[in-house]
Design brief:
Layout lengths: L2 H22 L2 H7 L5 H13 L10 H7 L14 H11 L3 H27 L4 H13 L1 H9 L3 H16 L3 H8 L10 H13 L1 H24 L3 H13 L6 H9 L1 H18 L7 H13 L13 H13 L3 H29 L7 H14 L13 H6 L1
Helix pairs in contact: 1-7, 2-8, 3-5, 6-7, 6-9, 6-17, 7-8, 7-18, 9-10, 10-12, 11-12, 11-16, 14-15, 15-16, 16-17, 16-19, 17-18, 17-19, 18-19
Length: 397
């Protein structure tokens, strides 16, 4: 059996183990218990409110309407998300919550498996141990199964991030722009991703085309949906940012809890230091992508532990850089260390968070990933190592 087939088998076995873990050892049962109270029910309640004739950004009526629809009582007075998210979820909102929840879960898990498989094949092909370890961590790791239980966006956003990376590298910039629309669901997680891609656009024609298409497409979506609900922004701005930015698993919250206002200032300085380190890599290279995507999680404005699923993308890219440079041992150490962190360390931080009723300090996980990736790739910061399609093919894309 070839190494590629062994890698396929290892990945399939790991994914099946993860699915069985979800189905038989608690996460699925917990999700079914929470179907009317998990995060997905909150996503669903906004577009469902519109379908029944209400206004999800009316602070005088939204909470009562959501409760009448059978979801948990919202912890905000208006719908958490923007109108473009509401429009994207309208098809699911037309279905009963239980049916919509099943579709959301199956679609999220399926796309995450496809995305991770594509990343592994592109960056670290034919390595069964790595494929098996990361495949197992996808759903058995705390971020993955937590995202399933809560019905969160993380698996879909990881899939979109992987799709953008793979499509741009292959010269399919229009496809990448469509995938990047998913970033609009939670732009606070993709601040540094956006900056990294924008800087790369200055130096690399593929990224330039991608950014152009993404701006046009994303701008059209935002403008059209905003026009449909012109009054949404003042109500959203008055209620949601104050509720959501004060506490989450990000550096600003963690340092703020320990040191107060000086801690928040220190957190900003640390993030800017990360930006300075990321800027030392060659724009548009694989190493550049890995570092900036890791920074996006480590320096997010608002994030929780389930969002750490996105770390699979920079981790796999970084392993690809090391593999291409012939550093197999370093690649295995990084990959297996990342898998163990997601399987064990993330769970330990989550347990601490449950005990404290606050998982703020889980930010240590993405910060550790960023440090490990920068450390591992630092010798290649001036390398343009990247698997490119021939220029003529890129021109034709």
């Amino acid at each position: 059996m070839s190494s590629a087939r062994r890698a396929d088998a290892a990945f399939l076995i790991a994914i099946l183990a993860g699915v069985l873990f979800i189905a038989l050892l608690g996460p699925l049962g917990r999700r079914l218990e929470m179907v009317h109270a998990n995060d997905f029910s909150g996503f669903w309640s906004g577009p469902r409110t519109v379908l029944v004739g209400g206004d999800p950004w009316d602070p005088t009526s939204y909470v009562d309407t959501a409760v009448e629809l059978g979801t948990k009582k919202p912890d905000a007075n208006v719908y958490d998300y923007m109108p473009w998210v509401l429009f994207a979820l309208l098809p699911l909102a037309a279905l009963p919550l239980e049916v919509a929840g099943w579709i959301w879960m199956i679609l999220s898990m399926t796309l995450a498996v496809i995305a991770l498989r594509a990343l592994l094949r592109a960056f670290v092909p034919g390595r069964p141990l790595i494929h098996g370890a990361l495949g197992l961590a996808l759903f058995v790791g705390q971020p993955g199964f937590h995202a399933v239980v809560l019905g969160q966006w993380a698996l879909l956003l990881m899939s979109a991030s992987a799709a953008v990376v793979l499509a741009v590298r292959a010269g399919h910039t229009r496809r990448a722009a469509f995938a990047a629309l998913a970033f609009l669901a939670k732009p606070q997680i993709f601040v540094w991703t956006a900056l990294g891609l924008a800087i790369a656009a200055v130096f690399d024609v593929r990224y330039r085309r991608f950014v152009r298409y993404a701006l046009v497409l994303g701008g059209a979506v935002v403008v059209c949906t905003w026009l449909a609900f012109p009054e949404w922004f003042p109500a959203w701005l008055a209620d949601i940012p104050p509720r959501r930015t004060g506490r989450s698993a990000v550096l600003l919250s963690a340092f703020g809890q320990v040191l107060g206002t000086p801690g928040r200032v220190l957190a900003v300085a640390v993030i800017l230091g990360g930006v300075a380190l990321a800027s030392r890599f060659v724009p548009g290279s694989d190493a550049w992508l890995a570092v900036w995507l890791a920074l996006s999680s480590a320096g997010a404005i608002y994030s929780w532990s389930y969002d750490q699923v996105l770390l699979f993308v920079p981790l796999t890219i970084a392993c690809g850089v090391l593999a291409a440079a012939g550093r197999e041992r370093a690649m295995r150490t990084l990959a297996l260390g990342g898998a163990v962190t997601l399987l064990i360390v993330s769970l330990a931080f989550y347990a601490i968070g449950v005990a404290r009723h606050d998982e703020t300090f889980s930010v240590a996980i993405p910060v550790a990933f960023f440090i490990a990736i920068v450390w591992s790739l630092w010798p290649y910061r001036r390398s343009t190592l990247i698997r490119e399609r021939p220029a003529q093919q890129i021109q034709a894309a």
